[in-house]
Amino acid sequence: MNSKRRPLKRSSENGRKRKESGISSSSLPSRDFSFQALKLIEIRNQYSSGYKKNDPNVKQKVQFVGNNAKSLHVSVEASLKKLRTTYIDLLYVHWWDWDCSVSEVMDALHNVVQQGKVIYLGISDTPAWIVSEANTYARLMGKTPFVVYQGAWNVMDRTFEREIIPMARAQGLALSPWNALAGGKFRTEAEEKAHAEARARGDGRQFPGGAEMTTQEIAVSKALEKVAKEAGAKSIRAVAIAYLLQKTTYVFPILGGRKPENWEQNIEALDITLSPAQIKELEAVVPVDPGFPGMYIGDGTDISMFLGLEINTVRVAYPQPLRP
């Protein structure tokens, strides 16, 4: 750990310190608020959501939400205090609020980097064109650009691939997809049967939108199961993760697990090699409409339809993701 890190005290002393400082357990970071801090290798935070939303002592909640400089300032200061650290490794803009200018956001973010409170910047749940504009502004004005994009992406929901992946490729951004396993809805027939029996007993995990698998989820799970057998994989979830890792470069999925076997499945993805044919087979289950203008010009990975009509040539391949 960096020497700047303050060593954690024993839990009893932590409780006393929080009590003295007015910080309760409920005020600590969580997935529901702006500071989604995960202390694994680095500390990651996100600002934009109103983390004072449920605080009855705060009347002017507008100062604690959005992309503006005030929201950023109070968010970073509160996170540093709660986490008892002097800096944040990676700070995300949680979502784009459409009410703050690109220049204000990038200037304010650059300031906290210059102050030594943040090292790297990321952005989440924001249109590709805004990210491109923000990074262009940052580079032209000598500011700190974004280095990673976080968004919803899995083998069943691939709308992420329309604009975000080409943008990230052009900007040199890493990708950190959330919902990589569709909220746990990728299950084999045997696993679904076990889930159904658990639901009948009143046990089992609760899922947003219901626990039963949809027709689409069943179809994707069957395709994952087929590819898993071909690839010699033990888990279809490992195949779903491998798809993301091998679709494009610099992919770092956000993964979790409630049981040891969940983590084993996550790690197994690193040993799976998917062939181009297997990737196409998985994508064919739920095709993505590229929309306009992608339906005509493609995504840059191959010669566009119009260029192909004029000349006989091939596209030089982009850098490829690492494979086992």
In short:
The protein has 324 residues and is of the alpha/beta class.
List key phrases describing it.
alpha/beta; 5-stranded parallel sheet; 324 residues; disordered N terminus
Give an overview of the whole structure.
- With 324 residues, this protein is an alpha/beta fold.
- It is built from 12 helices and 5 strands.
- It has helices spanning 11-21, 69-83, 102-114, 128-140, 160-171, 189-200, 215-231, 236-247, 260-268, 276-285, 294-297, 305-310; strands spanning 44-47, 88-93, 118-124, 148-152, 174-178.
- β3, α4 and β4 (148-152) form a beta-alpha-beta unit.
- The longest helix has 17 residues, at 215-231.
- The radius of gyration is 22 Å and the shape is globular.
Q: State the helical fraction.
A: 40-55%
Global outline: globular
Overall average pLDDT = 84
Task: From the alpha carbons, calculate the radius of gyration and give it in angstroms.
Answer: 22 Å
Keywords: NADP
Pfam families: Aldo_ket_red
Domain NADP-dependent oxidoreductase: 61-285
Region (Disordered): 1-29
SSE arrangement:
Blueprint: H1 11-21, E1 44-47, H2 69-83, E2 88-93, H3 102-114, E3 118-124, H4 128-140, E4 148-152, H5 160-171, E5 174-178, H6 189-200, H7 215-231, H8 236-247, H9 260-268, H10 276-285, H11 294-297, H12 305-310
Parallel strand pairs: 1-2, 2-3, 3-4, 4-5
